[in-house]
Amino acid sequence: MDYSTFSIPQIRQLLLDKKATAVEITKFFIEKIKLIDPKIKAFITITEKEALEKAAEIDKKITNNETIGKLAGSIMAVKDIFLTKDIETTASSQLLKGYIPQYSSTVCQKLLDQDAIIIGKTNTDPFAFGGSTENSGFFTTKNPWNLDMIPGGSSGGSAAAVSANLCHFALGTDTGGSIRQPASLCGVSGLKPTYGLNSRFGITAMASSFDCPGVFARSVDDIATVTQITAGHDKKDATSTHQTIPDYSSLLDSVNLKGLKIGLPKEYFTDAINPEVKAKVLEAAKVLESQGTILKEVSLPSTNLGLAVYYILVPSEISANMSRYEGIRFGQTVPDSSNIISYYMNIRGQFMEPEVKRRIIIGTYALSSGYYDAYYTKAAKVRTLIKQEFEKVLADVDVILAPVSPTTAWKIGEKCSNPLEMYLADAYTVCINVAGVPSLALPCGFNSNNLPIGFQLIGNFFEESKIMSIGHQYQQITDYHLQISKI
Ligand code: GLN
Q1: Which residue in 126, 151, 169, 138 sits closest to 6, CA to CA?
Q2: C-alpha R_g of the chain
Q3: Which end of the chain is more exposed for a tag (fewer CB within 10 A), N or C?
Q4: Which residues are catalytic?
Q5: Each residue of 281-315: pLDDT tens digit?
Q6: Strand order in the sheet with 439-446
Q7: Cβ(214)–Cβ(173) under 8 Å?
């Protein structure tokens, strides 16, 4: 049986009906990963032993008539920046090679407690710095739809794993687009929740006031099931929300599309976007219009400042967060250094990937005395402006619909020599993180080369259930999310 085509609740039901065991399901995925992953390279670590142990534990519960968790039997892949107890966690940087955490990130632990099975850790740009996985200190992941293309990033491994049906769902983080962009480029669904909905505890920090853990899956329904478990306050993360978490799954049909106002921001539909991408995103808007929604042009005038603001504030926070990697507490060490300064220099010189160094340097510069006001303070002010613009538009329309990426997946190596060109690819995702609002990326078609295209539904703070309901209804009348690449 092909267990990869079942939804999370269906998998659990298979176990309860004794039509499959968790061990059988796990073995099916391990075989599939061994067969397909050498071509895609979504995984850095395959946790065969741990997965089979967990599966046996679930099967034992069933034999003993004990209650099983809500995710029992579901196979999850985890971006390698989430700490996983006793499982190597590298953040895809050579710096952390060999690092075995003593505890798991809150998000992972909550999912494990509901009997999800970790099948492996997925590739990413190091510490999530990037948009293609090409910055990874290990290797580049390939797009399952075309192995010459990037899968997007930074959570490219997780997106590719879901896209190739190597798991039921995968965890990622979105600091400036790293869930939505790879989801779009790989043809799967992905949710960047409101900042603070999911705990950041136990995830290697990129930019602490931006980082949002979230999930990839084929359908919005499975995203709702997983988010139900991950969301909510965590006393180990002071910025995590105190809001009551709604029952997302039961609300999937709750939004009435008749008369619902959808804003199309004109700044996201300029000539800068590839025409095929633009056409497909507008087609998605038309599909929703055919269900009775009202499309309205809106304006987010500071959109063009988004990248500048993001690439000042994020490296600034990165430069502070990276100071903990001094080669003593975590990961790699070097044998002979005459003194502590040369030790630090050796560690960082040898094991930090170029993009990691670049961001530390940019951030340190922006925060240095004399430049702080000109760069950091100014960017922080524009951040408020961008947030206010979203609030204003979202007071007028129910949700905003926009493209995720200005292009489809590009060729591996194409943008590597020019980091600025790579940063430009984030033009349509970063403002959402600057504002902190939630956004759901969904597949909406293919270009003439059969590469996936996605769009995003942006809601107001903590309106995950609204955007998921619209996304779910969209997926009831389209089948882009069900398409699978032929690898
Ligand atoms: N591509 C963006 C960057 O390089 C986003 C990264 C992310 O969201 N982790 O910063």
Answers
A1: 169
A2: 21
A3: N
A4: 79, 154, 178
A5: 999 999 999 999 999 999 999 999 999 999 999 99
A6: 43-46, 117-122, 75-79, 169-173, 213-217, 189-192, 439-446, 452-458, 399-403, 261-265, 294-298
A7: yes
Instruction: Give, for ligand 1, the residue of 136, 203, 404, 426 to mutate: max count of ligand atoms closer than 8 Å to Cβ.
Output: 426
Of 88, 92, 84, give the one whose Cα is nearest residue 100.
Answer: 88
pLDDT in tens, 320-332: 999 999 888 898 9
* Alpha carbon distances (Å) from 141 to 42, 144, 289: 5, 9, 37
3-state secondary structure the chain: CCHHHCCHHHHHHHHHCCCCCHHHHHHHHHHHHHHHHHHHCCEEEECHHHHHHHHHHHHHHHHCCCCCCCCCCCEEEEECCECECCECCCCCCHHHCCCCCCCCCHHHHHHHHCCCEEEEEECCCHHHCCCCCCCCCCCCCCECCECCECCCCCCHHHHHHHHCCCCCEEEEECCCCCCHHHHHHHCCEEEECCCCCECCCCECCCCCCCCCEEEEECCHHHHHHHHHHHECCECCECCCCCCCCCCCHHHCCCCCCCCCEEEEEHHHCCCCCCHHHHHHHHHHHHHHHCCCCEEEEECCHHHHHHHHHHHHHHHHHHHHHHHHCCCCCCCCCCCCCCCHHHHHHHHHHHHCCHHHHHHHHHHHHHHCCCCCHHHHHHHHHHHHHHHHHHHHHHHHCCEEEEECCCCCCCECCCCCCCHHHHHHCCCCCHHHHHHCCCEEEEEEEECCCCCEEEEEEECCCCCHHHHHHHHHHHHHHCCHHHCCCCC
Amino acid of residue 335 = P
Ligand 1 atom nearest to 128, measured from its CA: 9
173: CB partners within 8 A, 6+ apart = 79, 81, 82, 128, 154, 155, 179, 203, 206, 211, 212, 213, 214
Specify burial of residue 332 (Cβ count, 10 A radius: 0-12, 13-18, 19+). Answer: middle
- Output the residue whose Cα is nearest ligand 1's atom 4: 130
The amino acid present at 59, given as its one-letter code, is D
Task: Kindly report, residue by residue over 61-93, the tens digit of the pLDDT.
Answer: 999 999 999 999 999 999 999 999 999 999 999
